[in-house]
Every structure is written in structure tokens, then in C-alpha cells.
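call fold target=Oligopeptidase B
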Amino acid sequence: MAAVTTETAPPAAKRVPSERTHHGDTVVDEFAWLAAKDDPETIAYLTAENEYTDARTAHLADLRADLFEETRRRTQETDLSVPTRKGGHWYYTRTVEGQQYGVQCRRAVRDGETDPPVSADGAPLDGEEVLLDGNLLAEGHDFFSLGAFDVSPDGRWLAYSTDFSGDERFTLRVKDLTTGELLPDEVPDTFYGTAWSTDASVLFYVTVDDAWRPNRVWRHTIGSAAADDVVVHQEDDERFWVGVELTRSEKFILIDVHSKVTSEVLVIPAGNPTGAPAVIAPRRQGVEYTVEHHGHRFLILHNDGAEDFALAFTSADLPGDWVPLIEHTPGTRLEAVDAFANHLVVSLRTDGLTGLRVLPVGSDDGYDIDFPEPLYSVGLDANPEYRTGQVRLRYSSLITPDSVYDYDLVTRQMVLLKQKPVLPGPDGRPYDPAEYEQHRDWALADDGTRVPISLVCRVGTPRDGSAPCELYGYGSYEASMDPWFSVARLSLLDRGVVFAVAHIRGGGELGRRWYDQGKLLAKKNTFTDFVACARHLVKAGWTASDRLVARGASAGGLLMGAVANLAPDAFTGIVAQVPFVDALTSILDPSLPLTVTEWEEWGNPLEDPEVYAYMKSYTPYENVAAVDYPAILAVTSLNDTRVLYSEPAKWIARLRAVAPGGDYLLKTEMGAGHGGPSGRYDSWREEAFINAWILDRIGHA
């Protein structure tokens, strides 16, 4: 454990004992007062923590500036995304050097134009129409985020929503794209998700309840007051949340009702938006399904008797029995189906890698698309056109920058439209992927399970334990940490750092069973898997424990806190971003955002004493001990709705109280949410701050 060597002392968190009792167990929480967000003492304490962190990292100012500049120089700041066709327009986003946010644009499709237009160096396209300029919208605000961005089927209206605090409570507005004027229609406190009726006279949207659970779908008639809006569906079961979307065919409005393990889908004909929603299949506990419209049928992706999901269909006129299309194959997890007029494209994963399967309509000649690298991530990009013979793909790997392809579903030809430019770094040398190498390795968990690890490093990085390493992990909600490219990461790789991702249980990399073995009363597998990966990297010579930094965010921040308690000797530093480290306190409080919907992920400790005891045995805040911890950097945001700022604030305070002398830092963004700073330059600075801290821990500052 690194000792605090600066004369600057950390702020003193007052200790005000607060008791709670569950299942006969009384817990004293001395730092519960930090949850009072509106208390001036709380704000003063967080401000003092930021000042302390600034002082403790002041010696890294030049390195932070270097890292930021390296990211900026390698990024083509004025750029333009590959335009996507929808109806009579090409839609795209532009970024401009010096500006934080994107500019949403479109340009009319010209006679005979089939290929997306391009521009030199990201310049505006000739004939461009600016729909929204995020920089203008963000003026006067420290934070800005778009929730909805939804153009009506006729191209006339734009529904969009904005958040200026980071709490993900959006104000919905409608813009007339023919005049550029905003309609008086304005709806506050909306959630993600909108859907238009066929004639664009009606807009559907979602709102949340007091616990920030999306529970209502509303119908809004364009030109009317929000007070006249009608609730189309209200979900009263607190385990479930709702969403709304228009099918690609533009024939149906889908209302998705989902808990962690059960789902139900309702449909409304988009041509009859005032019609009553009809249920595709009533919810059955433990059965999940999603719906995609395709001609005379609804496609059903489901897990009814199919752990890794199967694909079926039912009549669109009279939904009933499910007719199989793709039978269940253990180990091949079907994740989504996208329907086009003459083809279906199934997104899947097998052996820890993503993939795409094409099913021509009326033919048994289905096939999987091949990709060249041993490690990669691929998925469908925006594909709004239903009647098309090609689809847009997005592909990347640990060494291949984000790449956009058009894939011809008939000829099976794949054309690269754009690869994200990586400009020369400070040394003037262009990026060359041949200078880097990626690997797949496997660790052996305590119970004998093989856990995959993805790694990337510069060619020639030694395998004698001398190389430093950053090990990233998540491991919850069946979310997979598929290989991704990062410009900012190049600054670490070029300094000799190995970057590794632990694909631990609780994620979805190896199918539904991989997820099930890392949740509820098997959650500790997530933590022991990560420690096993750390031990393996040392044993295999990739790094040494005093050269290894762990990093995770959100539920991955819970992972960071748990492994700090479980194996503090395995790491020299830990970065925990928006960390869910006070999980038991949060999951015991059903009034908090997301708590009730989370019970099917973690268990319900309010009602089940076994769950209570199990969670208490691993939640980081509950298990801080008088041991030598690695250096810890906790990063959070004051307006985070998903993981409250108070969790890392309390955690750091308890670490200092129980294990004094350690190097514990707390950095709070005072005007942001779960994703941290919203502007791209601010995000680069945040990443430079974290990477500078990591380099300092491994002696490369």
C-alpha cells in the first residue's frame, strides 16, 4: 500500500452513526449522511475531496496535458460519419474542430445516387440541411446530452429530447424541418424511446415513475398540449420497465415490457395509432422474447425451452403459436434479429465472439459472414430502410479502428466505406496496426472454469513479467466486453503497457449460462474469475502484481471494490468509475432508482435472508477491512441516477477510517451523470486524468 507522502491531508468525513436492522442483523453506517445531496455540508465535503485529489495529482499535470494532446492529435477533429439513407435523404453527423458536440445533418438524395456521398476532410456536404447543432443547444450549460433523435416517416418532423444536468430526465420537443421552427409541443421529464405513427400525426414517448423506472407509454398528437396526452400503457409491476419503437417496416408500434428475466410485447398498428395495444404473447415468468415485424409475420426471438435463444415466427394478423425458424443450439447465443424485405440478419455470439448470420427469405441457404481477425467485434449499424439489398455493418478490434462496411446480401461482397482515421501522434508517425498484436488467453478459475482474456500490446512487449498491465472488467447484466479500439489507449500501449479484458462470468461472452453463473447467489464467481485472470497474467509473464492496475465502471466498479477486498495483493492500483460499491444499502431501498427492477439480477435482500447474508458477504462498503489496499481512484458524478455519487464517497471515507494510510482518491464531476463529462474534449481530459494516474502507479509517469 502506497503511503500518502504529501503534506496535503484528505478531508475529514464526520462520522454520524446510523443504524438499520434486517433479518436480525444490525448495521451501523457512519457515513450515511453523505447521501444528502442537497446538504451544503455534503457539497462542501465533495468539493474538498476534489481539491485534495487535485493536490495529490498535481505532479501529473504535464503528463495529463501530454496524454490529452496525443488523443487530440490522433483524432480527426473535423469529420463526417458515413451517411445513412432513409427515404429521400442521407442522414449523418459532423464534428468540427474545437467544438464539443456533433452536428446532426441530412442532404437530399440526388437522381441516380446509390452510394453514400463523401466529403473531403469532414467538410459539410453540398446541399446540407442542419437538423440539430449540439453546440448551439449546449450553450450556457456544463452538460448536454441527446435522448431522442427521431425523424418522422415523412421526413417533416424531428422529435428530440435534451438533458442539461446528467440525470437522464429529458425534455421532449418537436421541430418542423420544413420551416426550422420549434412547435409549442414540449414534454418535460421524459425517458429514452419515441415512435411515430405512419402519417406522423402522433408521437409515442415514455416517462418514468418516482423510482426512475420507465413505466408509462404516452400518445401525443402533434400540435396539441402535453396536458392532453393519453397514457397508452402503464406498467404497475415494479419489476418491469417499458420501451417503445416503430418497426423498420413502419407498420407497427412496439411496446416492450421487460424485467430482467421476463418479457411481454404489445403492438399497435402504426396506421391506427389510437387503436388499443394487442399482446403478442402474455408474459410468463422466466420467458423472454423480442419481436420484429416481417411481412405477414412477427419474428420471435425467445428463450422458451432455449437457454441460448431460438428464432420463431407467428402470424401478424392473429398472433398465436410460434413456428420454429432457427432451433436452439447450446453455445450459440442468438442476440437479435433484423428483418428486411428479402433477408433476415441474426446477430449472435459463439466461442466468445460476435457474428452475423444471413437468412435469405424463401431459401434454406443461410450462412455466417466471415471476418479475418482472431479477435473482433461486429454488429449491424443503422439500417432504417426495409426494402434493401444491402446492410450497414460496424466492425472493430483491439488493433483495427472502427470500420463501417456495406454488405451486399445477394453477392456477399463487403465494401469498406470508412475506417475511423487515426492521425500521426506527436512523433509524426502514422498509426500502423502491424506494430501491435492481440491475443486470446485463458485463465483457470477456482472451480476449474476456463475464463477468456483478450489482450493487446505493442509487438515485442516482453513476456518476462516486466511489462505493466491494465486489466479491465465488468461482468454483469449479460453485457459483453467485446474487443474495441481506443485512440486514447494507444498512449498506454506506446509506453509499454499491456491492455487486457477479463471476460468474466456475469457477462454474456459465452452465452446465457455464462451470465447465469455470475448473478444472484453465484455472483462471487464474477469476482473470483477476475482475480484468477489477474493471477494468470502474472503467472504467464504478461505482468507482475506490482505492475498491474485493475479498472471497471458501474457494476464493474462493484467488481473493483470486491476484488480490492478479496485480493488486495493482486494489484498496485484500482480505478473504480461510477462504482456500485454500496450495493446492499441500495438494493435494500425500493424507493431508490432501479432497485426493484434489479432484484432479479442481485436477489431481494429485503425478503430473503439468504440473499441478504450473501450480498453482505461481498458488497465492498460492507467488507472494508484493516488491510493493505492498493492505491484506489474512485471517479463519480453528482447527478448520476444509476449509481448514486454517495456510494463511492462513503466507500472512500470508510477506507480511510478502517485502513488508514492508504492512497485513496475521490474525484466527483459536479455537473455530470453516469457517463461522466458530455463534451468530447472534456471526455478526453477525463481519460487523460485516469491514464496519467495509471501510468504513475506503474512507474511510467
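return ok
Residues 1-6 have pLDDT under 50 and may be disordered. The chain is about 20% helix and 35% strand.
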